[in-house]
Amino acid sequence: MNLSDIDVLILAGGKGKRLRSVVKNKPKPMAEIGGRPFLDFLILHLKKKGFTRVIICTGYMADKIHKYYQRKNMGIDIKFSGEEKPLGTGGAIKNAFKYIKSDPFVVINGDSFCGIDYTKFLRFHLKNKALATIALVKVKNDKKDFGSIEKDMSGRITNFREKIVSKSAWINAGGYLFSKKILELIPKDKQFSLEYQLFPNLHNCFGFAGNHVFVDIGTPEGLKKAGEIL
Question: Which residues contact 189 (CB under 8 A, 6 or more apart)?
Answer without folding.
Answer: 87, 91, 95
